[in-house]
Every structure is written in C-alpha cells, then in structure tokens.
Design a protein that fits this description.
Two copies of one chain form a homodimer. Chain A is α/β, with parallel strands linked by helices. In chain A, 37% of the residues lie in helices and 17% in strands. In chain A, a hairpin with a 5-residue loop joins strand 7 and strand 8. In chain A, helix 6 runs antiparallel to helix 9, helix 7 packs across helix 8 and helix 14 packs parallel to helix 15. At the A-B interface, strand 5, helix 4, helix 5 and helix 16 of A face strand 5, helix 4, helix 5 and helix 16 of B. Chains A, B: Belongs to the CAF1 family.
C-alpha cells in the first residue's frame, strides 16, 4: 500500500491494527544519500571498532533524509500454515507545519539520487506528497506553544514576549497609537450586543493588534462572546466575534481544542507510525539495518548521542527486538551455505535447497509483490523480501530439532541469539554492533599500520608482503592502510625498523611500518 | 520548450541559434533552497554593505542546487514591430559521469521544496532526467584524464600511478603471478595472426591485468593490431583484439577519439549553454538576479571567490551586460510609478498606463505562455515575463525623447545606466551591487546600534524611540538591531550614556546604545 500525505490519515488505523496483530515486522528505509565524508573507504575501514563506525555514520550520514520507509507486517495463519503479509510503502517529507516551525535542511548525494532514479523512484511522491513528521523535542515544543496560546486566550494575558516596557503595566494597557483602533472595535462589539446579528467580522489587522483586541475584549466582556482568529485563503488573518451563551461558548472552545489537537497530530504525522512500532514490542527484522535504525531514531526521536548513550536510548525507546538478516546469513549455520548476502541474492538462495521457500500470502486489499519481477530498492518491497529471508532462515533452524519442525515462530528461543545485533559492513573481525551487551574485542596482534607513497596501490602492498602468505588490506587514506597478516607470529623485528613483531602500542617512525591498533 | 537529458542534445543547436540571433536574453533560476543560515533576518540585514551581503550569500546559499534554468530569447522583428520569443526551460542535475567523477552533494531546504511543490514543480524531471554539467576545473580534469588514457594506450606506458616498485623496471615488466596469464594471451594473439579470424575477445579480467595486456601487446606487436576495452551490459570489462592494417587502425583510433570527445561534451552538458550565453556578449536581463548570477558562476564556472575577485572573474568570464528589472523598477523614473516590484506584480503594472503592454509573439514551434494563466516560478515563464517587464520599461524611457520613440532597442544608450548593477534585497540605502564600478557608500551617521533584552519586539523599539519620529529597525539577532533615525542631528549624548550623538567609531557599553556602523 502506497502511503502519502494524501491518504495517510485514512490508513493509520489499518497500519496500527496490522502492527498489533503481527507476529513480526520487517522494515527498510531509502535515503537521500549515504555519506558526505571524504570517501567510502574512510567511512568503512575494515578495522573500525563498533564505536568508531557508529561515530563515523553519525557524523557523515545523518544529514541525509530518510524519505521512504517500508513496513511489512507478517501474521502467521495456523489454519493455512502461511504468513499473511501487509506491506506499506510510506513517503516522508518534513513539510514545515507553520511559519514558526523548523525549516529542515537535508543533503542529497547525486550518486544515491541517480541510483534511485534508475530504479524508477518517484521523487514527486516524496517532495510533493510526503508525510510530515516531528521528533520528540519538536512535538513537545509545538504542544507547549499550543498550550500557551490557549492559556493566553483564556486569561487575556500576553505571552511573556509581550511583557515589555510597553505592555507591562497591565493586561489591557493599549499603546497610544492603537487606542483609537481598539476603541472602534469596542464600539462595534457594543453595537453587536445591541443588534440582532450573531457575528461580527473585523478587518484584517496585525498580530499585535489582534493581541490587543483579545486582551481588551476578555477584560471588557468576560462573558457572552466567542473571539476567534480566522485565516483567509490569501493568508490574511482577521478576527471574528460571535455572541454566544455560556454553553455555546464552551462548545466552541471544545471544538477549537479538538481541531488544534488534530492539527498537532497531523504535524507529528509519520512519527506516530514509528511510535506504534516501538510500543508494539514486536520483533523487527531488517537487512543490514544499522543505518535504518540510526536514521529512524535521529529523524523521529532525537539527535543521535554517543554510542554508549545510543544503546541506552535504544533500550529505553524500543522495548522491542531487532534482528538483522544480513548478520543472520553471515553467521553459523548459514555462513557455510550462503555465498552472497546482498538482499536480492540472499532471497534467491533461500528459495533453494537446503532451504524452503517461505509460505506467504498477501492480505486482502493489499497489493501483492511478485518476487520474480524484482522491485528492489522500493522500501516496501525490500521490507517484504527481508521478511521472507527471515522466515526461510528461521524455519531452517527448525530442521535441527528432534523431531524437526517445519515452522519456527518469531517467538522461538532458536532465534534469540540473533537479537539486537546489527551487522557491521566490511569489518574484518567484528561482525556486529551489540545493542544489549558488550561489543566483541578481537585480538589484533597481527595487524600492521603501514604508510607509503601515495602512488601505491593494493597490488604494491601484496607484492611487499608476498613472503607472508595471504594478507588483508584495509585502506585508511591515500598514504596509509592496515595490513592484517594471516599468522601472528610470522613477523620479525629488524634493526632497520622495517619489519617488527607486532605488539600493543608499538609504534615506529620508519617509512613503512608499524603501529598496533 | 522543456529541455531534459533526454532531448537536450537535439535542442542544443536550436538554443545556440536562438542566442545568436537574439537582441537580448532573459534568464531565471530555481534553487533547492535559499539559506542554510540561522534565519532570514541575519542573512539580509537592512544595513549590510554590498560586500557583507555577498559574503553571506556565498556562505549560506551556494550549497543549494540551481536545478531549473529558464532562458527566454527576444529577437526584434522590424516588419512586425514585435519581439519574437523563444523560451527554454532546462532541468539540471549533477548526474555523476563515471565512477571517478565528483559525487556532488547539495542541500534541500524543506520550505523551498514545499513552495515549489505547491507550484506544481516536477521533481522527477530534475532528479531522473536533469541535464548534467561540469564546472571549468572538472571539465579540465576530465579532459586531462582522457588525454592521459590516450597517451597511455598509444605508448604502452603505464600511468604514473603504476610506476611503483612492482612495475618500475620497464614498460613490459610482468609480476610473477601474472606471467602465465599474459603468456596465454600472447599465444592467443599469435594464433589470431595465423588464422582467418578478424577479432579475438578475451575473458573479462582486472584493470591491472588489462594494463599488462596493453603494455605487452604494444611492445610485442607494435603494428597490425587494434586493442580495445569493451564494457558488457553487466558492467564487466573485457579486451577485444582485432587484426587491422595501418589505415584501419588509424580509422579506429579516430573513431574512438570522436566517441571520447562526444562523451566529454555530454559530461560538460548544460555548462555549454551557459558558455554560449557568456560568449554571446548579449544583454542578459533578470529579476532580482544576484543569486541567479552567483549560482550560475558557482555551479558552471568555479567556486565563488571574495567579492573583489568575483567582480574581476565576472568581467573576465562575461563580456556581457546584465540588467536587473527589479533594480530598474525601483529607480527613477519608475520608482514613483510602480508600487510593488515583485515579478508578478510588476508585470501586471507594466501593462497599464503610463506603460504599454509589450508587443511579443512566440516563435513557431515554441510553446506560448499566456500571462493571464500565471505559471510563476517555472524558470522559463519567469524569464519570459522578466523580458516583458524590461521591454515595457525600456520603451517607456523612449517617451522622454523628442520626438518620443515607441520602441527602444536593447542597444540604446537610454538603458546603459542600469547595466551591471544587481538589486540588493532589503538594504535601506544601497540599492545595488555594482559589477563594473565602485559601490555606493552612503552616510550612516543616523544609524544606532542597539542592544536589549531578548524579549523585546520591534514595537518596543518604536516605543523607546517614539520621541524621534519615524525610525527604521534592522534586526541583527535576538538582542541587537540597527535603528535608523529619520534625522541625523536629533540625538543627544546624555552623561548616562543612554543617548548619544552618533559619530564614527563611537561605541558605548551601556545596555541600550550606540555604535556607528
């Protein structure tokens, strides 16, 4: 189901109940870019620690926009022995709520945009019809503003910003130059009380004048009036004054309150879907999902903190379990069976023996995807096949039970070892970032820090270390790299400083080697 | 005429000849945002100097993308006593040319995007079909790369990056592990010479291996072979070797050269249109065109320098004359006759007495705009009506001649006073930035620098200075502003430091006043 600003309010209940009834959820995000850093190899060094990687992504990836969010819900139907799926493809855009709301700036990376364009991505759906959103602080601010405006109107007292030399002498102090204007308004209102008209529309006037009118009328006519600011199509604002009895006044106040509440909910927009996912406590499956999770928290909750606090924020905000299918596919017992772990390749391999194609059916009223006609990089489709991958792998784990089980639920103990561990791209010896426990700390005795002239290529490093068997090169920049030797004890310290036994904190200033990291 | 990547090569000659035949050109740009600065008032303070304003725009506006460029050419037809117009609406996007070309990042401002969306802007035309471009440095780099690759193939010598320990011993030195591979290739080529086949396709291999093949074949078979790298649909690269006589070899080299030249021109893309405008030396008309000019230079020529150098770069790159219709409308004799200078309002007023509606006709084969059905903020349309405004105003100047003239050409001396002066938004006393002379330096003796508590509003300042008649407030930030008094000699210095005669460099530390700017 395609969800934009046009239809999302009608869809919300469908989304909520799909989440509520689901056994597990799959998600995927599409972004306006990946990295504004110097280059990809600097962003993903093969020997980053989880903290370094997180910090780099936070610095170089969060100014892009998550502008398409895919959610696919999976509910197991016992009678059919099938999962029933509901897929939602949300378009997201931070349309400013009003003139005072934050005017979000985000970066676009031309290679990413060009890639999405080549996949048929519809940018008009994002930019013209994207669903707005607020993070928690913005939402709180907006609620506060609304509250303040309410109190102001109710009490006839100016906002703190109006408590200044010119207006501090009392709630109804009128500056000299506005006295005539206000007196004329009071006369008109007195005439309204005397005649048979029900309402009186004033001429458009400035915000300051409107403030003075509210103050004066609240003070002079504490009862019997309802005063409201109305905006014309041309965005001019004028005040409408209505004669009302107390009951009518309360009814109108109540109406206004409800309207304000609705506008506020509209502004919170897509964040409400994320809140619902978070509150559901359901298992959430994603493929290579670290960036998706980081963007989701950054965009819909709060700017990202340090890694330590991120893990805390995460546990607080998300009483749910995450499972990364890329990590699962790269871990025993799948590692030996699966050659390629990119989403498209993985989905294909998991249909073949020893795996079984997952049994799924699209819920009534939802568009069904055909995995043969790939729609990769549409977030909804990617979420859908991520879910399929999870089902195949989970069910495969059931084959090890005695007796074997063909169906393993999202609540099975068998999948718990994969919970809350997010795949780390291109790190040699630390497969995941652990959200609910300490990170792995592999030994790196065999890792050398090498500097060289900037003309050198990987082949020159292979040549140089050819005596040491297989090596792994992790580029840092033009003139340095980490070189991992296959065996730790091979290396000799020469007096020349050229080769060294590696050990902790060893650092030589020679042109080639060696710093332990 | 809508111009995207799909059709721009077919349109180029039409564009070139329209520019060539025109009496003047009108331009307009649409951007992905206006300011990434803290707020609008900080960006456009009413008492900025031209240099300050330029520096702020350079800092806070250049990371946005100019993604739609409107060009309307106006050619006067003597027999019809009418201008014939050709309008082009170009969509522009920095699609990366290849894997090594710069991956441009640009900012989007949600309020600007939302505004364009509300005007029916088609973002898919930009992001999916925008015409690419290169600035002068990128173009030079690409030409150099192409040149280098050519020389390399011609001489069989590696690029400098391959002159490294493993390959510095000679052009045809083969590392041990590649010797078998290269020997097999040589054998195949020898077989090719012996048999009746014309061509030989090698297996896909690495870039390093291709390099070795080129080096070896150039050295072993200096004549009789044409060697070429071909890319498959799957982006795999393999080498194709053909037996050729010398004539055929040269013909193929020439073909390849031409193909490379065409690819290079494609990459330069939209910049070629800008170069043509620049070289034409024609009068270029824009409305409030400072940002358009800055973006055009920044995006298609070079990163913007300091203002002083900008003026120099400008005169060097653009042997043309610019005319800003917003400035013209704000200057005598138009100032007294024209109330609103926004483009839409201006165009309406210039159809009415004492002005005359401009006589224009759309050239055959071009879509005509109907000014009654406004299509504002489409760059082509905005350029078109900017041209109309210029014609009305220029012709109005003819009414002052004896005898009066109904038509004033773009080459008339009457419009020269407006050349190369770009309108400065919201500066009280400096109407324009002068590109070909010194900027105005108005007296600012009556300007006070005022600081105050952050709760204060403009009304508080009016109140405070109410004894001094009319004042103008130019906000700097939450707690300071420039206050311009209407009369210079009114102000008294009190011992309290509260009020001061303003004079150059006076600065008091009192809470309220005063610094001369």
């Amino acid at each position: 189901m395609e969800v934009t600003r046009k239809n999302y309010k009608d869809c919300l209940n469908t989304v909520y109940s799909a989440i509520e009834e689901a056994d597990f959820l799959a998600i995927d995000g599409e972004f306006s870019g990946i990295s504004d850093g110097p280059n990809a190899s600097a962003l993903t060094n093969g020997l980053d620690t989880p903290e370094e990687r997180y910090t780099k992504l936070k610095k170089h990836s969060m100014d892009f926009l998550l502008f398409q969010f895919g959610l696919c819900t999976f509910k197991y139907d016992q009678t059919k022995s099938k999962y029933i799926t509901k897929t939602f493809n949300f378009y997201i855009f931070p349309k400013p709520f009003n003139r005072t709301s934050p005017d979000i700036k985000f970066i676009c990376q031309s290679s990413s945009i060009d890639f999405l364009a080549s996949q048929g991505f519809d940018f008009n759906k994002v930019f013209c019809h994207g669903i707005p959103y607020l993070n928690q602080e913005e939402e709180a601010q907006l609620r506060e503003q609304t509250e303040e405006r309410r109190n102001q109107h109710a009490n006839g007292v100016g906002t703190p910003s109006y408590i200044s030399p010119s207006s501090s002498k009392g709630p109804a102090h009128i500056p000299e130059e506005h006295k005539d204007f206000i007196n004329r308004v009071v006369e008109k209102v007195e005439a309204l009380f005397a005649n048979s008209e029900k309402t009186l529309d004033l001429e458009p006037c400035t915000g300051f004048q409107r403030k003075l009118i509210y103050q004066t009328l609240n003070w002079k006519f504490p009862k019997g009036l309802h005063v409201e600011t109305i905006e014309t199509e041309k965005k001019e604002r004028y005040i409408q004054i209505s004669k009302v009895d107390e009951e009518e006044r309360k009814r109108r106040e109540q109406q206004k309150l409800e309207k304000e509440q609705e506008e506020l909910n509209d502004a919170v927009g897509f964040s409400r879907v994320i809140h619902a996912i978070s509150k559901s406590g359901k298992l959430v499956v994603g493929h290579n999902m670290l960036l998706d999770v980081m963007h989701t928290i950054h965009q819909f909750y709060c700017p990202l903190p340090e890694l330590l606090h991120f893990v805390m924020v995460f546990s607080f905000l998300f009483p749910l379990r995450l499972l990364d299918t890329k990590l699962m596919a790269s871990t025993q017992p799948f590692k030996e069976l699966i050659t390629y772990t990119s989403l498209a390749e993985l989905e294909k391999q998991l249909k073949e023996s020893p795996f079984k194609p997952p049994q799924v059916e699209t819920a009534e009223g939802f568009l069904s995807y055909n995995t043969a006609q790939e729609q990769l990089h549409e977030a909804g489709y990617d979420a859908y096949i991520t879910g399929l991958c999870f089902i195949s792998m989970a069910n495969y784990l059931g084959s090890f039970l005695t007796p074997p089980k063909a169906y393993i639920s999202a609540r099975s103990k068998l999948i718990e070892p994969f919970f809350n561990k997010l795949f780390l791209m291109r790190i040699i010896d630390i497969p995941y970032l652990n959200l609910t426990g300490p990170d792995l700390q592999p030994k790196r005795d065999h890792v050398l820090y090498v500097t060289f002239p900037k003309e050198w290529k990987t082949s020159d490093l292979y040549q140089l270390f050819s005596a040491f068997g297989n090596i792994q090169v992790s580029w840092i920049d033009d003139t340095s790299a980490f070189v991992s030797l296959s065996q730790t004890d091979q290396v000799q310290i020469g007096e020349s400083g050229l080769f060294c036994h590696t050990r902790q904190n060893l650092f030589t200033t020679c042109s080639l080697l060696v710093k332990y990291t």
